[in-house]
Amino acid sequence: STPWCPACVLSSMAGLSRLSPRMLTRRLGNSSTIEVLGLFDSCRSQFDGIHFAAALGRVAGSSVPPELIPDVREMMQAAEAELSACGPRQVATICHAAGRLARAEELKPAATSLLRSAASEMGRCQEELQPPGVANWCWAYGKAQVGLPVAERLAALTTAAPGQYTPQQIAAVLWSLAALRSQRSDIFRLLSLEAAGVADQFAHRSLANVLWAFSCVTVHTESVGLLIDEAGQRSSRATSDDLFGNLVATAKLRVNDTGAALLSSEVGRRGSIPARWLGTGCWALAELGSREALAAVAGRIQAKELTPEEIATVAVSYSRCW
Questions:
Q1: How many other C-beta atoms can be found within 10 angstroms of the C-beta atom of residue 124?
Q2: Is 86 exposed, middle or buried (0-12, 13-18, 19+ CB in 10 A)?
Q3: For residue range 137-152, what is the model confidence (pLDDT) as tens digits?
């Protein structure tokens, strides 16, 4: 393939040196990754927080080709050096982009470094951060697996502003805390109240992520029970991953009420468990005492699909109910 050449890209960008800051921002928001990098190479001296946020946000929204990794890394490092001059909204957007870019192993060190530097900006930014910025910034730390103390501080901002966060934003904060193995049960309990208030507004996957997060710290409140009831009522429309994710989370939380019964009943109605969920799925059904569901799926279990550990888990699960 042809190596990336900024000059080749820029040759088709007439009048580039005359772009105003606003036009540069607009151009960045509508450019491909290679064009964004070309703009950065040509207009680097003009880049401020708004431009870095627009550029990295655009690049993070697509898969970065291997040959462009070094150039994206360079732009991330330049953004990190300018964080102290960025506004709160821009810092949050840049961090969110870094979290998304961390999915590429070659970019993860740069993303981690940027997020660690951003931690020192929390003090001046937190007063002006809006809910989208708080959620995006917090989510980035969970995605990059770094910065638990900062994520907990951001989550605390969420609990201090009840009713101002959307279901998706609440789910993002909870997911990040759980991914970072936070043990702040006080924050989880307060967030459970927020989540319960919008239980019927969660997308299926967001609801599954929320229940998974609560199961990681075994926080079971009345509010979490309402979320499980919501998951149970929607179980017939859930994907297999969401259904069994909710079932396992419910079993870990040791909740055995209406919601748990509905989840188990849906497993029995479907009559099978996907191979990747066989071990934990059978364990969850046994934990919830769902004998009928276990009986319904028994004939569809293929031992050859299981590891020795999963076979042992399935065997123990059935022995507990018979």
A1: 12
A2: buried
A3: 999 999 999 999 999 9
